[in-house]
Structures are given as C-alpha cells and as structure tokens.
Write a structure and sequence with these properties.
This protein is of the alpha+beta class. Helices cover 23% and strands 36% of the residues.
C-alpha cells in the first residue's frame, strides 16, 4: 500500500521517513519529495508498505500525530492527475 505523508518537517529525510513507518510493516520505499532546483524538501513524501494491513494501521495511528514538531497527514496515495 502506498501512503501519502504530508506536513513533514524540513529535517525529515528518506531514511527518517522509513524509520518512522518501519513499525507498521516492511517499508519497500520511503521518499521525501524535494524541489528539483534547491534540493529542499517540499514537506511531503510517499511510503510504500508491503502489507495492506500495515498500511491501514499506519494511516489510523500516524494521521495527525506530531513528528519532529509537526502534525503529519497520512492517507492512501492517489494516482497522479495529468494536466
């Protein structure tokens, strides 16, 4: 299950994001999206948890939880809309 994680603190990188969600199952991918020019985090990322139950549990437990001083938003990722 692929999760969207929003409102991330600037200090959170890929490794930290993976560490945060590792308790919910096998994290096969954790990526913080960054600006292609400055390299600075855009404040959101995506986490792929191999087990759907783990993904659902992560949404239930982590949505609204404070991480690095910011209340993160966690939901199931939606397909990207083309313009």
């Amino acid at each position: 299950m692929k999760l969207y994680v929003g409102n991330l603190a600037w200090a959170v990188d890929d490794a930290k994001l993976k560490e945060i969600f590792a308790a919910f199952g096998t994290v096969s991918e954790a990526v913080v999206i960054s600006d292609k020019y400055s390299g600075r985090s855009k404040g959101f990322g995506f986490v792929t948890i191999d087990e759907d139950e783990g993904g659902a549990k992560a949404i239930a437990e982590m949505n609204g939880k404070a991480v690095e001083g910011r209340e993160i938003k966690v939901s199931e990722a939606q397909p990207r809309e083309e313009n």
